[in-house]
Amino acid sequence: MGLITLVGLVAKNGILIVQFANHLQETGLAKLESVIEAATTRLRPILMTTAATVVGHLPLVFAHGPGAGARNSIGIMLVSGMIIGTFFTLFVVPSIYILVARTHRAAEVEEREAEGAGPEVAGAAV
């Protein structure tokens, strides 16, 4: 159950950066500028989510008594996983975005040129 929570939160944080970077690219920024701006803008919400998750699950790390072993393992996994996942979200996701993501602005220019070339060719043939 802790692993599902961890994967969901880390994926949500990564999606925040990618979605905002795509939006910034569509407004005219270059790919590198957009991902830096997206990571900077979304830093606060990502850190707030991480802090809330870590502080909320910290009592599981220090649990003792009957059933403490299961609580400790879930707590340690969530706390350490969120810290590591936040590092990956803030540094690895933007790096992979730069390598893998397509440039949205270039695709829009190509579509406009293709639409503009169609009527000119048809008009020249008449």
Annotation, overall tally of beta strands: 0
First-residue to last-residue Cα separation: 67 Å
Structural class call reads: mainly alpha
Poorly predicted ranges: 120-126
* Total discrete domains: 1
> How many helical stretches?
5
Q: Would you list the SSEs in sequence order as H and E?
A: HHHHH
Q: Could you please describe the fold and organization of this structure?
A:
It is a single chain. The chain is mainly alpha-helical. It has a single domain, classed as Up-down Bundle (Multidrug efflux transporter AcrB transmembrane fold). Helices cover 87% and strands 0% of the residues. The chain contains five helices and no strands. The protein has helices spanning 2-26, 31-41, 43-61, 68-100, 104-125. Helix 1 (2-26) runs parallel beside helix 4 and helix 2 (31-41) packs antiparallel against helix 4. The longest helix has 33 residues, at 68-100. The chain is elongated, with a radius of gyration of 22 Å. It starts with a helix and ends with a helix.
